[in-house]
Here is the input.
Amino acid sequence: MDLLEYQKLRSAIESEKQQRIQNHQARIATVAAEKGLAASSTLNLLAQGDSWFDYPLPLTHHSGIIDQLKGLHTQAPEILSLAHYGEAAEAMLGVKKLHELIDALRNPDNGKFDAILFSGGGNDLAGDQFRLWLKDAQAVGNDSSKAIDEARLADILGVVAAYTDLFQARDRFAPGTPVFGHAYDFAIPTGEGVCCIGPWLKPGLEDRGWQDASVGTKIVKTLLLRFDALLADLEAQASNNFIYVRTQGCLLPSQWANELHPTPDGFKTVTKRFVAALRERFPGRI
Here is the structure.
C-alpha cells in the first residue's frame, strides 16, 4: 500500500468512527428524551479493540462480537464501538486508541457508560510476531513441550501495560466502570489467511521446524493458555474491576474461518460468553 492509499484508508476509518459517534449520541439523546437516562435499563457500552470486535467478513454481514451484541433480539445494548478492523496491525492500545477512548468517556453526549469492552493482545501473541515466541524444533530435540521461548515471552508484559493504561484511564474518567476482556480461543494453524492478509501461525511454526499440524496446534494452545493465565491474574486483582470473559475452548474446528478469526456462527458462540458475563454483572438488563 502506497502513502496515498494509506491516507485514504485512514481518512475513511476516521469518517466511519465519527459517524458511529454521531449515531450513538443521537440514540442516547432519544433515550434521554423518551425515558430519561436514569430510568432506562438499556446498557450503554464502550468498545475498543481489534478485528474480533469489528470483523468485516462476509462483506454482506458484519460478524464480529460487537455486531452480534447489537443484534440481540431482546434487550440489545447501545454500543459505541471505536474498534476497527483496518487498525488491526496497530498497537493494541497505542496513544491514538487510548485517547479515542478517553475522549469518549469524557464526552457527556455519549451518556454514562455502564461498562468498557476490550479486545486486544491477539496480534501481539499470534499475529506477525508469532514466530518470535518459538524455539527451533531441532534445538530442543523436537520436544514440543519446550517449543515456547519463555525468555522472549516475557515481552508479553506489554499486554499487561496496555491493560494497566486502560484501567488508569477508566479510574480517572469513569471510576467504578467495569472492564470486560477476553483471551480469544485456541486458534488452529491451518495456513489460511483472509483478504490477502496472513496466514500468521503455520509459516512461523514451519520456519522453526515444527512441521506436524497436530504438534503445531498444541504449541499454539500452550501459548494462548499463557494469555489466559495473565488475564486470570489481572481479574484476581480486585482493584482492577476487571471481568475476564472465558472464551477459550468454546469454538469447534468448523467454527474457524481462518487462522485467527471465527466464522459468523463462531462469533455467535463467543458472543454468548460475553452476554453471560454481562448478565451476571447487570442482571435483567441484557
